[in-house]
Write the structure tokens for this entry.
Amino acid sequence: MKFSNLSEIASYIVADGKGILAADESNPTCKKRFDTISVESTETNRRDYRELLFSSKGMSENIGGVILFDETIRQKTELGQSLVDLILESGALPGIKVDKGLNPFNGSEVETLTQGLDDLDERCSEYAELGAKFTKWRAVINIGDEIPSQECIDANMEALAKYAKIAQKNGMVPIVEPEVLINGSHSIEDCYDATSRSIKSLFDYLKSYDVDITGTILKPNMVTPGSESEQRASVEEVAEMTIKCLKETVPNELPGVAFLSGGQTEIESTQHLDMMNKIGGFSWKLSFSYGRALQQSALNAWLGKLENKSAAQDAFAHRAKMNKLASLGSWSADLEK
């Protein structure tokens, strides 16, 4: 696949209802996932599991990009093919997570600032050599008493803009991820406020750092009540408030918005995405960049056993297809049977 600019890469990733498989779990996170199915998190087991996903028939037509972890972008399949080439064979593009996790912001116990800018240029240069076509950096915004502070939002969004500029300089599309966490008892209105402030700040900084918006993808949360909130929101309400928030903050020239699933179930994240696309009325592609919401059924089917490989691949293929349909606004609940 040949691309003449970043805008073509970004548009390719979210073309025709395709979305992104987030397979960039760090080793500690991967261990937590594997613990739930009583599988040891060894380098070989992690490789086998990801190879199972990347070689599933569900990749073709449904997945436009795969976000990898540093270990994974360097790995080969059991037969010696690089995982990068396996992904390319499926028609998807390989990408890489480049942030280095969270530190407390200004000594806060609840607000954080994402790290990783110091040696980012050198790392991006190497990742481009290894075949990465896009990158991802996650900022984390918490909702609580008196937070998020505007200072914390701005510090994280400026870091996202600096990262995006470095990624583009190295010929890769930046995925910018300002995640307002679902954790907490906050209302859907509180989530709307924090998400709106974060995305507005992000695009202000992207503009000031002269980042090419046409070669960028936004990976936001959906606007929902907190996971411990007593408030319940209908599928329509989540979809309508999320679209309203994006239309007020996201420039029209952005090629795609690829949502994170952020603690929603597999069905909820598909349902909400589908409803947004059924409502319509926006210029960008609304797609998915799911981790757990694409993988949970496959993980539960696999259980670390070779004889379960095809069942796990079928489970992944089903979720990938459902989310592609949701990105086109043509999913329905009866397709889940």
Remarks:
- The longest helix spans residues 188-208.
- The chain has one domain: 6-329.
- The mean pLDDT is 97.
- The chain is about 45% helix and 15% strand.
